[in-house]
Write a structure and sequence with these properties.
single chain; alpha/beta; five-stranded parallel β-sheet; 14 helices; about 10% strand
């Protein structure tokens, strides 16, 4: 049980104390597991009354786990609630309810703070607009679409009005990313045909001050705040440590969990390569896994493709040799695969399932009939048989391995966003 829960989103460690079971990381991993059972696994197991009872019990278990998680991060949760309330108060100094608040959401890092602010501003009578874009980590035009270009598209396509306030809250860990994004947003805002205000809000980790550049970044932030018409000390919230045995103490509890934020976020091409690469690594090292992959391939070729099967595919030793030769060919193809041009590379896939389908076809065109197809097909079949697919992966691997590609952030709905909805309800109850 400990391996299943603790190792759900990272390599397992031993739970040695009773208190470890209520550690925030263990709790959130359990929440992710329960939510997955609710929407993906449980409905297919039972029917009738048993299904209804089971669904009720899982929902209740998820609710209790969310309660326990919030208790485990209560100091940060209370600070987040204070940030939302206080931000409304300071904005009231420079705007009134006749003005619009335009929030910049960069999922998933600031999604939960954005939801908090959106609710608080609406409750205060403001009109709130949320502009959302998923950014790559690329700032070099020679390597593809840059973060500045993606932000420019977002802001220039929106019709601003006089006295709109552009508000950007986000986490400040080392401070580098926050400072760079503030400068990029301000640069775009200064080029808009209508003068709009820009106010960055820093959600600062407990160890941010240890970075040697902290004083420099702080001065930059204070300049932005003064330009917005506020005292230089405003818009700066230092968060306490999380208090997890298994996570960095300075980490903010909402960071890096897409389902917690109400999204499924991944690079389509990067995720596809990650899925294949993870499977291939295991298949090369584990003879039993490769034998399983061999059997799955033979079954697939006999029942689905209904094609002639080379004799070498039946012999275990011969198949390993063919598989390794195919893997070497795949490695030589990887640069060409990474160069595939697709809408999802810029995070702009409106319909993720359709986007993945078209990407798969482009992927297959690059591979063609080269030897690489064998190891790719075996990896795909083996991963599917072990429950690993792009749409069900729950965070075990890096979902953003290609620096120059923006991830696609797909907003979840229905039962798939149950965890997010429960968490937001708990956070909004905090005064």
């Amino acid at each position: 049980m400990s391996k299943m829960v603790l190792g759900f989103a990272k390599p397992a460690e031993q739970l040695t104390e009773l208190a470890d079971w209520t550690d925030p990381m263990v709790e959130i991993n359990l929440c992710l597991l329960l939510e997955f059972l609710v929407f993906a696994e449980y409905p297919d197991c039972f029917s009738g009354m048993d299904r209804e009872i089971g669904q009720h019990c899982l929902n209740r278990a998820l609710s209790l786990s969310v309660d326990s998680f919030v208790r485990g991060v209560i100091e940060q949760a209370e600070k987040l609630a204070f940030f939302a309330r206080h931000t409304v108060r300071i904005v009231n100094k420079i705007r009134n309810v006749r003005d619009r608040i335009v929030l910049i959401e960069l999922p998933i890092g600031n999604s939960i703070p954005i939801r908090m602010l959106e609710r608080r501003f609406r409750d205060d009578g403001y009109t709130v607009v949320v502009l959302c874009v998923s950014l790559s980590r690329n700032d070099s035009a020679s390597r593809g679409t840059t973060r500045f270009e993606l932000l420019s598209r977002l802001l220039t396509q929106f019709t601003f009005q006089e006295r709109d306030l552009l508000l950007y809250p986000d986490e400040w860990c080392s401070g580098v990313n926050f400072k760079n994004l503030c400068q990029l947003i301000a640069k775009v805002a200064n080029r808009l045909p209508i003068r709009v205000g820009f106010l960055p809000i820093a959600l600062v980790s407990a160890s941010a001050h240890k970075d040697a550049r902290f004083p420099h970044f702080l001065r930059k932030h204070e300049a932005f705040v003064r330009r917005a018409g506020l005292d230089h000390a405003e818009g700066f919230f230092i968060f306490p440590e999380m208090g997890s045995k298994f996570l960095p103490k300075e980490r903010l509890f909402w960071a890096e969990r897409d389902r917690l934020a109400g999204y499924r976020k991944m690079q389509h091409l990067g995720g596809m390569l990650g899925l294949i690469d993870d499977a291939l690594q295991i298949l090369q090292q584990d003879d039993d896994a490769l034998q399983s992959g061999q059997r799955l391939l033979l079954e697939h070729m006999a029942t689905v493709e209904r094609c002639d099967v080379p004799m070498s595919y039946f012999d275990r030793g011969a198949f390993r040799s063919v598989f390794l030769e195919s893997f070497r060919d795949y490695e030589s193809l990887r640069p060409a695969i990474k160069e595939i041009k697709h809408e999802s590379n810029e995070g702009s896939a409106e319909f993720p399932e359709e986007s993945l389908t078209t990407l798969i076809w482009e992927f297959l065109e690059v591979v063609g009939t080269r030897p690489a197809w064998l190891c790719i097909k075996v990896a795909q079949l083996w991963a599917r048989a072990t429950g690993e697919t792009l749409t069900t992966n729950l965070g075990v691997r890096d979902s953003y391995p290609l620096k120059d590609h923006a991830p696609v952030a797909h907003k979840l709905d229905g039962a798939r966003r149950l965890l997010h909805d429960m968490l937001m309800a708990k956070l909004l109850e905090i005064n």
